[in-house]
Predict the structure of SEC-C domain-containing protein.
Amino acid sequence: MDLIKKISQFERDFIKVNESFPLLNYSWNNKSKSWVIKGDLDICDVKGVYWNTFNIAIVVPEGYPFCVPMVFEISQILPRDKDWHISDEGICCIDIEHNLIVMSRKGIQMNDFIEKKIYPYFANQLYKLEKHKYAGEEYGHETEGIIQYYNENLKIQSLDSIIVFIEIIIKNNDLTRNRLCPCNSGKKIKKCHETSIELIKTLGKVKILDDLKKLKIHYLKTQSQKISNEL
């Protein structure tokens, strides 16, 4: 009796990808232990008017769905520049790294990932090529992106306050719902930053510590620059 080949979750999920994006196909790369999606991605506006086509590659690690796929633009339409959120090698920065990590912890669905992350990225790039600006708010690069992530999730603008907040999360394993919130609002965590704290924790201690280090360096540089300007 022939053994029935077990179909992976990626292969099952790709059926829906193929329905939505028929010009994309996949193969398994045994060397990198990853699925590789290649093909053309047609971009249209909200009215369905065709704009352009990108030739892309998406590398999906073996750990799918708990992973962050890597996206490449092969067609060379976009300028290779960090201000365009793309590297010299064509690697596309489709969102702030932290948002992608949180998404991967929960598990992604490939068709949703393309529809909600990859497709809007390329549509917005075409908009910038035409209008010389992005349609929405641009996310920051490198340390600026880290600051933006914590600004948006904690609703705290002061960098030194963000640093203190993160240090408390790292050092205190007893941030229970009924404790006072680290933001000094006077409210209990459950009525203040509970969701934000749990979201940050999903990044993992190594990532949070790395963020903390970069934020402290950035803060010291900005303070030094401020003092120099006042002299």
Remarks:
- Strands lie at 24-29, 34-44, 50-61, 70-73.
- The first strand starts at residue 24 and ends at 29.
- The chain is about 45% helix and 15% strand.
